[in-house]
Each structure stands twice: as C-alpha cells, then as structure tokens.
User: What shape does this take?
Amino acid sequence: MASLSDDGLAEVLSNMPDFSAPAFSSAGQRKFRLQLLLDNKEKQLQQAGTLGQRVLAQQIELEEKIRQLQEFDAERTEDEELDTDARERYRELAETYCCLGRRERPAI
Assistant: This one.
C-alpha cells in the first residue's frame, strides 16, 4: 500500500483543526469533532475500496481481451489477412485501453 509522501502528510496535518483553540474548549466538543473526522475518513476508505474494485475489474477485463487476441494470433498463419472479426476485436481492445483512464475517476 502506498504511503503518504512528506508533502501529503504535511498537507493533511495542516488541514487538521487546532483542538486547543477556544472553539474546541470542552472535551465534548473535541470528542464530537474527532468523531466527525473519523466518520469522514471511514467514508473515504469505503470510496477508495470501491474505486480499487472498479480498477481491478477493468484490469481483469483488459487482460482477458489481450489473452483472447493472443490466442487468435497464435491460431492464424502469418499469410492470412485480418478478417472483420479480428479487426473488431483489435478496435475494442484499443478503445478499452484508451478509455480505461477516463472511466471512474474519483472526484477530489
């Protein structure tokens, strides 16, 4: 798992509220604010997990298409022209590969 870079950690720490400030004077207020932060982090972790599952599914789909094309290439001789079906498979693979990065980008 990737860790936060020094810059990323500094940014996270700089965005954390100062719990010693008068706005958080009571223990109850500090506890409430910390719970909100924990709830928000839990939601972010769930979103990251969902995104990870989607990316993995896309990777598996792409690997399957590549495997199919490799099988097809192994079956045909070098003198054969690409038929319509093969061209369609190559087009789908190229489209999948090109569009992979544009799908399911998280909102930051």
Summary: The two ends are 20 Å apart (CA to CA). The CA atoms of residues 21 and 30 lie 10 Å apart. Helices lie at 6-15, 27-75, 84-100. The chain is about 70% helix and 0% strand.
